[in-house]
Each structure stands twice: as structure tokens, then as C-alpha cells.
Amino acid sequence: MARSAALFAAFRQEQADPDRFYGTLARDTVAQLRSYTRLEGAVVVDVGGGPGYFADELRAAGARSVCVDPDPAELRLRDGRLPQSAVMGSALRLPVRTGAADVCFSSNVLEHVPDPPGMAAEMVRATRPGGLVYLSYTLWLSPWGGHETSPWHYLGGRYAAERFARRAGRRPKNDFGRTMFAVSAAEMIRWVRARPDAEVVDMLPRYLPRWAKPVVRVPLVREVVTWNLLLVLRKRS
């Protein structure tokens, strides 16, 4: 519970204090990832890693990390410089050869692409047989599904974005239909179960205590309560 409380407290500082938010999340995420696989010497592709917070923590854990992101502004967001080992490229067409990664990793990016299954398929493609895919994303019907436009996204994504624009005098960074899309737990769980080339290692609410894991098996309820769904997959031979 203490871990969950610390993470949710950090979320409130995402835009006001990104170093605190992303630093806290990156440390927690890498610790979680290490419970599934060895990182020392592993080649890790960080999909949509932006300014490199996750890549830095992965390297600190002994991994050889490459950060892939399509937006040069996001890559330079932290201090104006490109992160170490950064590569510009789309999550829907990763500039990575098939089977190159020991771990293909993505945190909170899937809801920002127009083709979530396509991005997930690219991550599986880039991973070697026996390698791990770590994929987490914010569920649309969760309390933070609309990001900075929440909770008005419950009345519709476009309505929430327009309301934000009227009040703030600018478009939201996470603009529904342009830089943010509605992704459900059900959609990606169906996708995972239909994949012949990947087996499920784990499915759980990423930010909640481990005992909350069974909620992922409850349709409809999971869309709200899970908040952020983590899918951990193993690439089949």
C-alpha cells in the first residue's frame, strides 16, 4: 500500500515536476521488471521512452538500453539534450531488427498510438525467442484515462479535450484522437490470448498492491479499477 500511495502522489506532479514523477516511476518500474528477468548485460529496447528516465535506470541496473521515440521534442524534454543511445523511430515500425532485444519495454505509450495491437505486435517481433515483453498502459475508463483532461473524459474524449482547451487557452498535451486514444483492458487481453508467438507471464494492475491482481479477471470492473494494466509476455521459440 505504501508503494501505491507513493506512486499516486508522484502522478499529481507529472507536469509540474516531471523529474520527480518520471524518476520515481522509473525506479519502481525497473525494480518490478527485475522480478521477471535478469537485466545485467541484457539488450533492452525502451519503446516511447522520451527523455530517457527509464533508459537511465535500466543502464544503472546493468542493461544495454536503447530508447526509441518519434518526437525530438520529447527526447530533449529533460535538459535539451538527446538521451544516451536514443534513436528516432515509430513504435508502429520499430527501427530494430527482428529478435534483436532480450527485453522490449514500454511504459504508458500504448494509449498514445492509433494502433495499439500494431505497436504490441512490433514489440513481440523485436524480441528474441525466450525474451520478455513488458508492456503497460493507462486504461481509458480508469480515473486517469483522460490524463490531464480527467475526469471529463467520462463524458467523451473530444468533449474533455475541448473543455481543457477553453479553460487553459491551449490544447492538452494528451489530445484525444490526436495524441491519445481509448484503449481497454479487454482489447489487449484478447489480442494477447490470440497470439501464437507469445505466452502470458503475468497480467496485473501495475500500480496496485499484488493482492489486487484478481481484479484483472473481472470484465468491466477491471476497466476502472485496474487503472494501469501491465502485460508481461514471453516470446515463444
From TrEMBL:
InterPro entries: Methyltransf_11, SAM-dependent_MTases_sf. Transmembrane segments: none annotated. It comes from the Bacteria. Residues 45-134 form the Methyltransferase type domain. One of its GO terms (biological process) is methylation. GO terms for molecular function: 2-polyprenyl-6-hydroxyphenol methylase activity; 3-demethylubiquinol 3-O-methyltransferase activity. Its EC number is 2.1.1.222, 2.1.1.64. It is an enzyme of class 2 (transferase). Keywords: Methyltransferase, Transferase. It holds the Pfam family Methyltransf_11. PANTHER family: TRANS-ACONITATE 2-METHYLTRANSFERASE-RELATED. This is Class I SAM-dependent methyltransferase. It comes from Streptomonospora arabica.
